[in-house]
């Protein structure tokens, strides 16, 4: 389904994920060449789309920081178009996609399955995209935490 903001939203059903990403981002000629995916956590227990936008506006950004946000119930939403830079990692926003898990700790199996399906879709669009923890580019951060990183780093 498409939300009022025009952003794609889908549940963990892989067909819906594939459809939402490919349908809304299929014109590859207008998309940047992404070098990888930076994995984040929001350090919160919930962050619906409108909350992400409000948080970003508080920090003087027009849109959510992340390209994709995966909720605890394994649903997800697009915070930014894949055609525009993120605002998630200083110095890497032009070349790396940002995907955030909404969690204060471990991620659910559903979140992991959603992440896998999204990553596979992004691979179809852009080729292989290596994963990086946020802390790799900001030594003052521990994000996404050891437990989350251990689950996703070898996908």
- Structure annotation, total helices: 4
What is the spatial order of strands in the main beta sheet?
1-4-3-5-2-6
Question: N-to-C SSE series?
Answer: EHEHEEEHEH
The end-to-end span amounts to: 27 Å
Indicate the mean pLDDT: 80
Structure keywords:
155 residues; 4 helices; 30% helix; 15% strand; globular
Give a short synopsis of this structure:
With 155 residues, the protein is α/β, with parallel strands linked by helices. The chain has four helices and six strands.
Can you tell me about this structure?
The protein is α/β, with parallel strands linked by helices. The protein is built from four helices and six strands. The chain has helices at 14-25, 49-58, 109-126, 146-152, and strands at residues 9-10, 36-41, 68-70, 76-78, 96-101, 131-133. The chain has a six-stranded mixed beta sheet with strand order 1-4-3-5-2-6, covered by helices on one side. A hairpin with a 5-residue loop joins strand 3 (68-70) and strand 4 (76-78). The model is unreliable at 1-19 (pLDDT under 50).
């Amino acid at each position: 389904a498409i939300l009022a903001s025009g952003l794609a939203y889908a549940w963990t059903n892989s067909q819906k994920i594939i459809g939402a990403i490919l349908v809304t981002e299929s014109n590859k000629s207008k998309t940047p060449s992404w070098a990888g995916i930076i994995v984040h956590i929001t350090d919160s227990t919930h962050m619906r789309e409108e909350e992400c936008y409000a948080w970003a506006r508080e920090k003087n950004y027009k849109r959510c920081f992340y390209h994709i946000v995966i909720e605890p119930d394994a649903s997800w939403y697009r915070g930014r178009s894949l055609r525009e830079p993120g605002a998630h990692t200083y110095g890497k926003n032009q070349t790396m996609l940002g995907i955030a898990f909404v969690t204060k700790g471990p991620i659910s199996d559903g979140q992991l399955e959603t992440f896998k399906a999204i990553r596979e879709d992004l691979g179809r669009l852009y080729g292989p995209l290596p994963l990086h923890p946020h802390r790799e580019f900001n030594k003052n951060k521990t994000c996404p935490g050891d437990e989350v990183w251990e689950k996703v780093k070898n996908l």
